TrEMBL record:
Listed name of the protein: Nitroreductase [Lactobacillus pentosus]
Any Pfam family matching the protein: Nitroreductase
Family: Belongs to the nitroreductase family.
One function term, GO molecular function aspect: oxidoreductase activity
Limits of the Nitroreductase domain: 12-163
Coiled coil: none
Domain of life: Bacteria
Keyword Oxidoreductase: yes
Lineage of source species: Bacteria, Bacillati, Bacillota, Bacilli, Lactobacillales
Keyword annotations of the record: Oxidoreductase
InterPro entries referenced in this protein's UniProt entry, alphabetically: Nitroreductase, Nitroreductase-like
Length: 184
């Protein structure tokens, strides 16, 4: 069902895809999508989220040891690991340790910020003809180790596969609005 409204059409046709055709996506194209995705709002405009694009088939194969989501890793064009930068440095300014938010609030806010960036990325990817699958089903500590990320600084939050679908996604079951929305 199309509505002639591009935003609504993209939202209605984005479904998680777990099998891709293995074709690569140009890094320029991925950067184009990520540039716009990172326009997402963040708390206090701190922009704590970083994206690690893993398009190397060898590295993705290594990562399969740390997740059950293997088809997404091995058949996609790339997976994007969105991490929370716990130091949350503004590279333009010298880092002041006193400005660092309490770790728990930093982690909770990062988890909110990542959802907005990742959602924009998935919708932009759909608009460009690609499909995606967001994933939290991976071992973050093992990912840090394999990817050589300092666990004191980087907290892996969300992995998103991207590529051309080999097996189309389908509309998931959704609860009725009456169960989801209330008014006061
Ligand atoms: C935070 C989050 C974590 C998810 N983790 C996984 C995952 O580890 N593996 C997977 O196959 N799908 C994962 N999904 C995808 C959901 O299963 C999927 O979004 C949901 O079933 C609705 O389907 P749709 O994306 O096609 O609308 C995750 C989705 C979200 C939002």
């Amino acid at each position: 069902m199309t509505t002639n409204n591009p935003i609504i059409d993209i939202m209605q046709t984005r479904h998680s895809v777990r099998q891709y055709d293995g074709q690569p996506i140009d890094r320029t194209e991925l950067n184009r999508l990520l540039t716009t995705a990172f326009l997402a709002p963040t708390a206090l405009n701190q922009q704590p989220i970083r994206a690690l694009v893993i398009d190397s088939p060898e590295v993705r194969q290594q990562l399969t040891a740390a997740t059950g989501n293997t088809s997404q890793l091995t058949t996609s064009a790339a997976v994007v690991l969105f991490v929370n930068d716990l130091e949350n440095r503004d590279e333009a300014k010298p880092f002041q340790p006193a400005q660092r938010p309490a770790p728990t609030s930093h982690q909770a806010i990062g988890a909110l910020d990542v959802g907005l960036v990742a959602m924009q990325f998935m919708l932009l990817a759909k608009d460009a003809g690609y499909d995606t699958n967001p994933m939290t089903g991976f071992d973050a500590a093992m990912f840090n180790q394999i990817l050589n990320l300092d666990p004191r600084r980087y907290q892996p939050l969300l992995l998103v596969s991207v590529g051309q679908a080999a097996k189309a996604g389908k509309l998931a079951e959704h609860k009725p609005l009456s169960q989801l929305v209330d008014y006061r």
